């Protein structure tokens, strides 16, 4: 399965360009469909220009964030 193509289509549908940036929450089944794995609960950042996917979760009573996964589209 070509997950990079899925991510490019996802960005094009949501933002109108495959080079855009999208952030938000995705359910586990959508994450598995897009990336082939579940990154976790929290905020997902998809950057089309840099071709990266990041997972962020809140720490310290929601004031701080921690990047738990930063993946390039090639490694997915």
Low-confidence stretches: none
Task: Work out the number of β strands.
Answer: 4
Relative strand content: 25-35%
Helix count equals 2
| Spatial extent as radius of gyration | 12 Å
Helix content: 25-40%
Order of helices and strands, N to C?
A: HEHEEE
Structural class: alpha+beta
Taking the alpha carbons of the first and last residues, their distance comes to 10 Å
Main sheet strand line-up: 1-2-3-4
Give the mean pLDDT: 91
Described by strand count, sense and barrel closure, the largest sheet is: 4 strands, antiparallel
Coarse morphology: globular
Question: Could you explain how this protein is built, in words?
Answer:
The protein has 76 residues and is of the alpha+beta class. Helices cover 28% and strands 34% of the residues. The protein has helices spanning 3-15, 28-35, and strands at 21-24, 43-47, 52-59, 64-72. 13% of the residues are buried. The mean pLDDT is 91.
């Amino acid at each position: 399965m070509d997950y990079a193509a899925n991510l490019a289509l996802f960005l094009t549908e949501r933002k109108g360009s495959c080079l855009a940036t999208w952030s938000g929450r995705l359910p586990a089944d959508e994450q598995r469909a897009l990336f082939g794995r579940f990154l976790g609960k929290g905020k997902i950042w998809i950057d089309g220009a840099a071709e990266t996917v990041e997972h962020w979760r809140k720490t310290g009573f929601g004031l701080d964030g921690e990047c738990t996964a930063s993946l390039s589209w090639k490694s997915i």
